[in-house]
Write the structure tokens for this entry.
Amino acid sequence: MSAAPIRLGIVGLGRAGWGMHCAELQGREDKFRIVAVCDLIAERREQAVARYDCLAYERIEDLVADPAVEMVDIATLSCDHFAHAKLALEAGKDVFLEKPICVTYEEAAELQRIAAHAKGKLYIRHNRRFEPAFQHIREIIASGILGEVYEVKLRRLSYQRRDDWQTLKAFGGGMMLNWGPHIIDHALRFLESPVKSIWSDVRRVAAVGDAEDHLHIVLTGENGRVVDLEISGGAAIGEPVYLIFGTKGALVCPDEKTITLKYLDPQKPLPPRQADPGTPGTSFGSPEPLPWIEESFPVNPAHKMDMTTIWDELYRAVREGAPFPIRLEEAVEVMRVISLAKQGTPFAEA
């Protein structure tokens, strides 16, 4: 007999809550049932009641007090994440929290402490962990075909004179807290090592608010690997989304759809060579034909998934006791990196 669906209460029916969370739950009615919603706008509440035949609240305090709600799904403004998650955890509910976990590292660390003593569990929605391109590229790195990976470049570039709340510091806006949690989470997974050093450049280029819309961060791991990530709303010409360099080859994924590899044929070992201290001839070193293999193929990871897979993993964690793939300490570490990257800039935490 299958387990009962998780009884979900969604807080925030905007672009994330209604546009993403509710849309992604279609077809997963056997795993999740929306029993309550909460939003300040009456029209949104009425729309949800008409679709789900659920209870609707204007105040989050009333939703978290509802005994029918088993898990609180928080999709409110970034600046409200800490207070809303704290309220739900203290009410004894499980919490599924949209990224960013909070707007500061201090809030994230405090929320982690609260969750450690709460009856319910806190799950963070870093759903881009399940992007097919990200998963496929990690599989290729793990295969060893590129040799020892020493540098990873991650890019999300565009140009937009954005003007909504995501451009305002008071609401937790800015590229660092919008795209940042996703791509910094990717960077830390690619680093495969504790962070040894951080370099950053953070600025506002095209957005009309007061928050940053361009960030460039270089992370160096204790293992020596470098991850260079750039996220921008002020870059008029793009770059490949993924570029990976290894000691035996490289990988490029320009669009999250196609991967191109160039690597040394593992079936043809290279003959030994040594540096010649003598007077050089007319060439730069001794010419050597290398057994390169070049191939391109569609993104298609061995483990089929997409960004909605996070809901299936959430269900398995709650109903079957499986480990949730995004550990809370990983989300807190993302916020630590964000805090360090902002230091010394006009966008630093007050």
In short: The two ends are 52 Å apart (CA to CA).
